[in-house]
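Notebook p. 47: complex prediction with tryptophanyl-5'AMP.
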Amino acid sequence: MRVVSGIKPTGNLHLGNYLGAVKQWVRMQDEVAGQGGETMYFIADLHGLTEYIPPAEMTANTLEMTATMIAAGIDPAKSILWNQTRVPAHSELAWLLNNVARVGWLNRMTQFKDKAGKDREGASAGLYDYPVLMAADVLLYKATHVPVGEDQKQHLELARDIATKFNNDFEVDLFPLPEPMVSKDAPRIMSLRDATAKMSKSNPSEMARVNLVDSDDDIAAKFRKAKTDPEPLPDTFDKLADRAEAKNLVTIFAALADRTPQSVVEEFAGQGFGAFKPALADLAVSVLGPIREELTRLLDDRAAVSAELSRGAEKAAVLAAPTLRAAQQAMGLQI
Ligand code: TYM
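Predicted complex, structure tokens below:
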């Protein structure tokens, strides 16, 4: 079992990334090691380039995201932690896979359609090709499992198609098919202002998202002002199917508390949001506060954080080299 996943260094880690992905990464680190497997997590700085970020900010974001991962519980002694740029094999394999992926497949990617919007002609080639680099990220390490939020599932299905076509076209059994793992309890965390949109770094309002660096007061204020409805909570989670905002807040509560959404509605059944929101705010502060404090401590020594990335990259490069070489050989490239 080899678990591989990544996160873009665009801005702060928010509750959506944390509950949808990073929390699973932390949990898997011990579980997978117990089964003799490996966990590998990286900062997808090359994917970060698909949105223009001023260079100085990019450098700072990469270090800050690394420190946030460590503060959130990723232990570089247990998991390999690095950034894509320090392992050039990601880009090299992506080019090889570009010749296997079909334009028709990329045209179906909903993230490209959403991000390019109406101006497709003006979108970068990098944004279009993004899922091929993502396939390279996981196939390079022969990942068996990839923990992600729901929004990345389509990209992983593409990675499986690319792996299958590569194995068939070049008559090899090189790439195992990576299995996407979407958290059952927090597949999608939605915006606190509009529960039809996912919580994201690009939400127009700061009130829409809780960042892991937010102060306790900001966290409490964001939950207090979160959009809800006037109804009390029902006695089963299923009854929230048509109440998107309420469902989102219960989902967040359950994921933060490591409980099922059903047990949370049972506890608050019959109560309104006047009672539920303060309990949620207290819970969020108790979980996120210590992460923020550890992050602040780690950022006092940025050189040490950068050194962790170098060490991680060295380990990742050793695992990447034989796969890249085998792919080149399968394609008849002279090395
Ligand atoms: P990114 O940086 O947008 O997000 C990192 C992880 O957080 C999940 N996520 C969410 N989950 C639930 N609710 C939300 N509101 C929410 N917002 C984000 C994402 O699904 C993701 O798992 N393309 C990837 C990074 C990447 C990658 C990879 C992932 C690059 N190469 C290879 C896995 C394997 C991305 O942009 O994630």
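Notes: The longest strand covers residues 2-7. The chain has two domains: 2-187+301-330, 206-297.
Next step: compare against the earlier run before touching the bench.
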